[in-house]
Each structure stands twice: as C-alpha cells, then as structure tokens.
Design a protein that fits this description.
It contains 8 helices and 8 strands, in the order ααααβαβαβββββααβ. The protein is of the alpha+beta class. A hairpin with a 5-residue loop joins strand 4 and strand 5.
Length: 277
C-alpha cells in the first residue's frame, strides 16, 4: 500500500526543497563534508548508529570523501575505484561518497545508465505501482562467497536533495554509502552478529537464504556500542522507532517488511522519476 503523502508527489510538485540554496552554490569539498556530516548527526536519516559514526568517523573506520564532477564515465570509474580499494583496506568498515554535482533527476538517471556500462555493479529497478517513480537498487560483489556457494554482495544506500526520496533519505547532498566488509568479517573479528537478530520474524535469520549473507551498513561494528548486546539492541530498537516516526509509519519494529513507503527500504539506492530502461 502506498501512503497518501507519497502519491501526492506524483501530482503536486514541491518547489520548496529544504536545501535549495545549496544547489545554487559552489561549496568546497570540505564544506560539503561538514554540511552532510551535520545532517547525519541530526538523525534525520532515522539512524542512531549513523549519529554515532558521524560524531567520530575515524574511530569507527568510516571513510567519507567528496568527489566533484558532472556525471560521466570518469566519475563512475573514480567511485568504483574507491569502493574496490576500500574493500581491500582493513582500516575501513564503511564508505560514504558525497557527490555535490549530482543535482537533478536527469543526473540520477545518467548515473545509473553509465554505471551499467562501466561497472560490474548489479543494478535492479522496480516501478512503484500507481506512480511514475522507479526504485533503483544497487549492490556490489564484495569478493567473498557464502557457505552455500553464492556471492556476498553489499547493498548501497543513497541519499540526496530530492523531495521524491523518502524523508529519511533527503540529505543536503547526493551520497552513496555502504559497508565494505561482510557479515562474516564482523562476526569473525568482533563476534558481531547481524542486528536482524533483534527482529524475530526476519527472513535474514534463515542462513539458507541467499539474502542472509548480504552485507548492509547495519552490520558494522561500533566499538563500545555494538559489542554490548543490551546497548546494541536498544540502539536498534530506537533506530527503528525513530525512522518510523519520521516516515509517519506505525511504531511496530517487527513490521519492517510491511512498510507502506518502499523508498526507505535498506536495499534502495535511488528513486528516479520517469525512468526508462
């Protein structure tokens, strides 16, 4: 079921974007990183883990970079190179790439089309029923195989200054974020189990399912937080509730897969208007 507020986006364009002023400026990368970091610290993405990471990214092995440039093969190759290098770096758990020049729906479309051409990313698309919007889901092979012989992939989250994104994804600048390590890496190094263990009905508890091995930002290890079971569980529950408050959804954390806003799902990278394959 699609929420009324979301359906309204298809008929009532919002000309009063929260961060319009930024689109008309030429900030330095230092300023871009600062502003985006402040947004994450404010918990507007609904995630208290991200708040903690933003407070001290170096402590939690979160690499944050800004890459300027129009959407092109050169830009996508730079992004892909950063992802590959970060996967090989044992001092990096998570990677965020902020793209201040990705400013429009046309830019998002071009980003996806060029990525299909020059990278080995797996890019899935799905139309949202009764709208002219398409969900774009991107994952990257993390270079590992599971115990059942399938590839381990990391899903890329996307944020941006677009009023047709989910409220929890509407940031000052376009950003892609992902973990660059597998669930097994965190389990073996830190004895860290997926936070999906706190959602009893989650399909991710079934290790026979391929998706049980997918890598998500939610799997990362935050020293002094996620290694404390009680604190980790509290952070997870509060994050789920806070996210659902922002999205105006029922405060039932076990209803994650019943969300009426498909744009906020963990595997969604972008939402694109009038996208054609």
């Amino acid at each position: 079921m699609i929420g009324k507020d979301f359906l309204a986006l298809t008929t009532t364009p919002n000309t009063n974007l929260q961060y319009n002023i930024i689109k008309d400026s030429m900030p330095t990368c230092e300023e871009v990183l600062r502003v985006q970091s402040e947004w994450h610290k404010s918990a507007k993405q609904g995630c208290y883990y991200a708040v903690l990471m933003s407070s001290n990214p170096e402590q939690f092995d979160w690499k944050r970079i800004c890459i300027k440039g129009i959407v092109s093969e050169e830009l996508l190759n730079k992004i892909n190179s950063e992802i590959v290098a970060s996967m090989k770096d044992n001092n990096i758990q998570a990677l965020s790439i902020i793209l201040p020049d990705v400013l429009s729906n046309k830019d998002l479309t071009k980003f996806v089309d060029i990525a299909k051409k020059v990278t080995k990313w797996k890019i899935l698309s799905k139309k949202i029923a009764l709208t002219n919007f398409t969900l774009i889901k991107i994952n990257v092979n993390i270079g590992k195989t599971t115990e059942i012989g399938t590839e381990v992939v990391a899903w890329i989250l996307g944020f941006g200054n677009f009023d047709f994104f989910a409220k929890t994804r509407q940031s000052p600048y376009t950003e892609i974020a992902m973990t660059v390590k597998s669930k097994q890496y965190f389990k073996s190094k830190y004895n860290k189990h997926s936070v999906y263990q706190y959602t009893p009905k989650s399909q991710h508890r079934d290790k026979k399912m391929e998706s049980a091995h997918d890598a998500h930002l939610a799997d990362i290890h935050l020293s002094g937080r996620t290694d404390d079971v009680k604190m980790d569980k509290k952070l997870w529950e509060n994050t789920q509730k806070h996210k659902r408050i922002i999205l105006n959804l029922p405060l039932d954390i076990d209803a994650e897969d019943k969300s009426d806003d498909p744009r906020s799902k963990a595997k969604v990278t972008f939402v694109i208007k009038d996208y054609e394959e």
